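> forwarded from #structure-qc
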């Protein structure tokens, strides 16, 4: 967990590290004298004669940065100005490619249709789904690094064949192919590897088939759009989607092959400028791995404007060690940490970011944030599998999977599944009057399976424990429960 200045920060003067045996939590508070990277860029853009913002497109790695750049432009502008156009690199590639991005579900089903046609296996979608995500990720990477798919999926006899038959490949492309094959010994292939190789042999056709199917619908996955965008700009007389007079690329680090080609194309036309967010403490050290990509970017795409990159070594820091026993313990002391650092004033809260190393800490951290901090900007994702709703659906599945039908077709449920339902955060308010009594009854009578009468001695009707699922539509059952919970909480 890191508390740091908003995007573009560097130069922290206080650091709180909470750990026992390993580094568990960092807390950084921004050095108030440093200027955020994006604020420096806003200042450069507003300098007289720098560029016409109405004809300028700012390109970022993600959407978050555009919010702060707009804010800084508004703060620094002394007269009305046209705002530049803001795009992420993914959005720019989509425009230049001429495709539209397909949603994830569409991609999975299109991939399944192509795979079924080529393999003829009749494999169900449920069986195919676990490795469909991996295939899409592989296809995406193949296209972003512009690797020849036929060469990648070819059954290589050995690593040495890379050196001869594929001499035209770049080092990065060779490394990518090797990564797929370095676990295989062609002389001693296991049954599992043989199964995988039989699938591997189908992949060239699956890859081409998916691309063809999506092309016919003018859809694409991200890597396919990236590759098409590069092919368009280098192979077409009329280029769509590059209408701005100047493109400013801000805050990038590791570039894939498609991004590098786009950057080089616009640089050669004199229509691109580059702003790199880094600290010279990393780049001045030739063997420091954190500066590897930035050093290469500075050589290939040197910046025009002078931005301060001397923050980490310019200011003194103070480091505090606080031993905390667990991840949730780290979240619980967050309030006292923020009070110690004096994060209470509005301008300090805006210059402070809380960065979690473990995304599962998001919910405990949100509960631990002090009451006086009411405006939060949460930009991290949170897995559905970590949510209370997923937990509830999972518990309902276990409840009915492990149930038994006794006399008079009465249900009996495994005691652990019953307790998990009664104590689920979404249902606790409804079962709070009986959960302790049921737990005590299970302990006193050493119950393994619990009947409805054990849960509801008053024979009340209940949506969850009121029957079995043998002749019930599961989708309707879950929908009714979730709708009921929403009504109770509204």
């Amino acid at each position: 967990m890191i508390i740091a200045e908003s995007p573009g920060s560097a130069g922290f003067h206080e650091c709180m590290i909470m750990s026992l045996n390993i580094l568990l939590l960092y807390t950084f508070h921004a050095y108030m004298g440093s200027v955020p990277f994006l604020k420096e860029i806003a200042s450069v853009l507003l300098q007289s004669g720098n560029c016409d913002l109405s004809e300028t497109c700012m390109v970022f790695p993600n959407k978050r940065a555009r919010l702060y750049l707009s804010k800084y432009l508004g703060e620094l502008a002394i007269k009305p100005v046209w705002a530049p156009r803001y795009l992420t690199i993914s959005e720019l590639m989509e425009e230049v490619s001429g495709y539209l991005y397909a949603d994830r579900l569409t991609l999975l089903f299109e991939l399944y249709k192509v795979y079924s046609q080529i393999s003829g296996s009749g494999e169900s979608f449920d069986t195919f789904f676990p490795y469909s995500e991996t295939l899409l990720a592989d296809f995406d990477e193949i296209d972003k690094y512009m690797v020849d798919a036929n060469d990648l999926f070819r059954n290589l006899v050995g690593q040495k064949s890379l050196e001869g038959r594929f001499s035209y490949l770049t080092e990065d492309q060779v490394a990518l192919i090797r990564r797929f094959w370095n676990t295989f010994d062609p002389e001693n292939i296991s049954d599992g590897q043989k199964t995988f190789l039989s699938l591997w042999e189908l992949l060239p056709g699956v890859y081409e088939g998916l691309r063809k199917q999506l092309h016919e619908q003018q859809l694409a996955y991200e890597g396919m759009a990236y590759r098409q965008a590069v092919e368009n700009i280098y192979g077409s007389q009329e280029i769509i989607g590059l209408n701005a007079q100047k493109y400013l690329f801000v805050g990038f680090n590791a570039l894939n092959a498609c991004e590098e080609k786009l950057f080089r194309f616009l640089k050669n036309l004199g229509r691109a400028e580059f702003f790199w967010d880094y600290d010279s403490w990393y780049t001045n050290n030739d063997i420091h791995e954190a500066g590897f990509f930035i050093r290469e970017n500075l050589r290939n795409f040197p910046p025009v404007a002078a931005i301060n990159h001397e923050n980490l070594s310019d200011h003194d820091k103070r480091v505090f060690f606080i031993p905390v026993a667990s991840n949730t313990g780290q979240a619980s002391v967050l309030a006292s940490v923020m009070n110690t650092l004096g994060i209470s004033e509005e301008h300090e809260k805006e210059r402070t970011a809380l960065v979690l190393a473990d995304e599962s800490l998001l919910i405990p951290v949100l509960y631990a944030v002090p009451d006086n901090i009411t405006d939060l900007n949460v930009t991290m994702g949170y897995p559905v599998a970590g949510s209370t709703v997923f937990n509830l659906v999972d518990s309902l599945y276990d409840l009915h999977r492990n149930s038994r039908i006794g006399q008079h077709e009465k249900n009996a449920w495994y005691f652990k599944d019953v307790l998990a339902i009664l104590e689920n955060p979404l249902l606790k308010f409804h079962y709070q009057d009986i959960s302790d009594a049921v737990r005590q009854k299970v302990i006193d009578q050493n119950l393994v399976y619990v009947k409805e009468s054990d849960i509801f001695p008053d024979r009340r009707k209940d949506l969850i424990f009121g029957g079995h699922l043998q002749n019930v539509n599961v989708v309707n059952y879950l929908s009714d429960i979730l709708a009921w919970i929403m009504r109770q909480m509204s």
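QC bot note: The two ends are 33 Å apart (CA to CA). Residues 191-216 form the longest helix (26 residues).
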